[in-house]
Amino acid sequence: MQPNNQQNGQPAPGQPVPQAFASAPAPQPPQTQAPQPTMQPPVGSGQQSTQPTPKNQNSTQSTLQLSEVRDNLVVMSEGSFRAVVACQSINFDLMSDREREGVEFSYQNFLNSLNFPIQILVRSQRIDIGPYINKLLDIRRSQDNMLLGVLMDDYINFIDILSQEANIMEKSFYIVIPYYPQGDASTLVDQSKGFFGKLFGKPKATVTRIDNMTYQKAKDELKNRVESVRSGLFQIGVQSQQLDTKSLGELYYNYYNPDTAVNQPLANFEDVTATYIQKAPVPPAGGVA
Predict the structure, then answer these.
(1) DSSP letters of 241-281?
(2) What is the separation, in whole angstroms, between the first and last Cα of the chain?
(3) Strand ranges, E, within 108-239
(4) Residue 119: inside a domain, yes or no?
(5) Of 84, 80, 111, 113, whose CA–CA distance to 191 is shortest?
(6) What is the C-alpha to C-alpha distance for residues 180 and 82, in angstroms, rounded to an integer?
(7) Strand, coil or helix: what is 55?
(8) Gyration radius (Cα) of the chain, Å
(9) Do both 178 and 225 map to the same domain?
(10) Which of 39, 143, 199, 233 makes an SS bond possible with 238, Cβ 3.0 to 4.6 Å?
(11) Residues 138 and 87 in one domain
(12) Residues 182, 238: one domain?
């Protein structure tokens, strides 16, 4: 007894093949057409490619909130400006009760006199004792007195062991002074929104060009604000100084590279002997890029 395969739509063995099965072509695998190569103009031919270059959204440059550092100011990506004032600390614990009351009263008056927002930044970083130990070793080599040499050896060993066992930290104090061309009031309202409103809200538009009038107004306004902050700090007894362009670059470099900045500090480009490309200055008729 032979199995009946007609239920599956196939003829039984030994029976003639129907016309429907005989005329059906064998299934062919799908063929993919090879992509045609795109001819790109050679470099230096004078032709420009019409295809736009895709921008890498995951690059480090896209995560930075600053656009440029110039004229002792920081130009942010959304079009606002920042000035940073470095402050020296005062020993509040060693003051008498009367001196403490005077400092607190002066600090209260300083905050009440401000008509613009500020940000107080306290930074703690580890101190590199290597240059100090190298300086002591140079002095030790030039020391002829045997007793002083033995004392210096003990002191150098003590500093070396102390730096290895304990993290010697240093605190730096800064005051960040912002300026928003659209106004400080509207910006404070946007900053007062909740965390989830900022997280799921629309991203701020990136400003690619600022006109000279807005830039000059920002410079003048920040200059007045810096003088107001410095005079208020002077009343408290705190010495302060505005960071210049080089100091701002070093500050951002140390923040974004906390581990590398200790062993590889930012070099001075004026002392570099190799060839490097410098950005061309902005013409007076244009704006700030």
Answers:
(1) EE--HHHHHHHHHHHH-TTHHHHSPPPPGGG--S----PPP
(2) 90
(3) 119-126, 169-179
(4) yes
(5) 80
(6) 9
(7) coil
(8) 35
(9) yes
(10) 233
(11) no
(12) yes
